[in-house]
Every structure is written in C-alpha cells, then in structure tokens.
Amino acid sequence: MRSTRYRRWIAVPVALGLALALAGCTKQQLNGFLPGGSDTTNHTGDITGLWVTSWIIMLGVGLLVWGLIIWCAVVYRRRKGQTGLPVQMRYNMPIEILYTIVPFVLIIGFFAFTARDQAKIEQPIANPDVQVQAIGKRWSWDFNYINAGPNGESVYSTGVMAKEIDKPPFIDYSQLPVFYLPVGKSVSLDLLSRDVVHSFWVPDFLYKKDMFPGHTNHMYFTPTKEGKYIGKCAELCGEYHSLMLFYVDVVSQEEYDAYIQSLIDKGQTGVLGPEYDTNTNQPGTEAPTGNE
Predict the structure, then answer these.
(1) What is the dihedral of CA 161, 163, 164, 168, to 10 degrees?
(2) Topology annotation, domain 130-276
C-alpha cells in the first residue's frame, strides 16, 4: 500500500515535467522567449541554441531536486504516534560526491559552450562586404558607410534624438535614424562614442556592445533576414537615454545601393569623424601648458 503512495508522489513531478515539455511547442517557446528569431543573423541560431539548451538542462536539474525534496518530505514525515527524532546520518560519501561532481560538470559544460560560441561571434571578418561606423552621441546616432560609394568614396547619415508626442506610442518612430544593411552580406561594425559610454543594442540580433570614448569596439555578423529592427542605447547615458533609439533596416542589395546613392545625391559624402566629438580630453590629447 505504501509503495503505491510513493509511486503516486513520484508521478506528480514527472507528469508536470512532461506537461511543460509538451506545452513548449509554439515558435516563441521553442525560441526561449527571446526576441526575433533564430535566423535573424548568422549568430542568432547559436545564441538561441545555447540559451534554450541551458534552460532545458537547468529545468531538468530543478525537477530532479524538487522531486527529491517532495519525496523526502513525504517519505520521512512524522507519522501519527511517532515521538522523538528519527535516526540521524552524519555522512553519505556517494551522495556527497554526486552533488559535488554534478554541479562542477555543469559549470564546466556551460563555460565551454559559451566560450565556443562567443569566440565564433567575436571572430573578425577579414574582408567584409560592408564596413560601417556606428557613432553614439547624446542622444542619437551617426553612421559612416566606409568605401560604400563610387570609387571607394564613403558616405554618412546623421540622426537626431527621438521626438516625444502626446499620444501612444508617445514617440514619433518615423523620425528615428535608420541604419541600412544588405541582407546576406558580411558586416564589420565599428562602434565609437562622441561623449560618454553608450551601448549598441539591437534586441533581435541577441548581442550588444558598449561604446567607449577614445576606444573602438567591433561587431561582426551577417544579417540573414530582411526586416526593420528597433535598436537602442543599452547604457544609461544621461537625461534622454530612453530616447536614444534607431532602426536597422535589412534590405536587398538593390535597395541598399539605392539608399547609398540617395546619400550621395544629398551631398553626404565623406565621414563624420572625431572632429564632431564633444570630448576634448581624449587619450593622446596633450593638456595645454601654462605658457599657452
């Protein structure tokens, strides 16, 4: 009779685990509730896979631990008529080895797979199809398309801070700066700042990087799905940080070429360089002497 009750208690967490597994069949759930999809860039599939696999493993560990806790609470509960304390155990070497080795193996495994994927994401592209400089400034963005025009001429676009309006969604998204990229082309993105620390973040790309004054960071990826993706600064940078928004528009090669030509037609050739930085004390800048 008692063994039947034990089997029922063991069946409860197992049934709950199966129910959760069977429920995870929607696209959003299979994607680990992450934004975008696994095919947005050449890296999002790896990032999604690492995230979802990690959660599955940890949920398995959680179910095991919860099941053991419930089992111990039921099996070893005080029963009617019992008094005093149950027989105490000081050591159980196999169990102690188990709960020492298993977490260690999990930590090493998570570290190894994370390091593998991060090394792949951070691998520089030797000859990128597109090279762009994204420059953060309080509180908007400049974009330099290096050697994108005819005869290796660079072109640029400059943006202004998002404009607030009085009705939902309370921001005029039509006025945000737009960063264009051709689909299926490798991109080398240089990240710079004109003033304070910013952070370049496109949530659908599942990766972000900080932008430091006087230092250039880099991102390497290939957008693999056309679409318009919202981007933002992910580092608190001042009063209007929340309005430091932009779009990434991944388009066909023809649309991208037409956009570059439109910048040339507007006379926006060359680059918006450090001469527009608001900091005058960047590394390497000599302080004035008292004789000047």
Answers:
(1) -120
(2) Immunoglobulin-like (2.60.40)
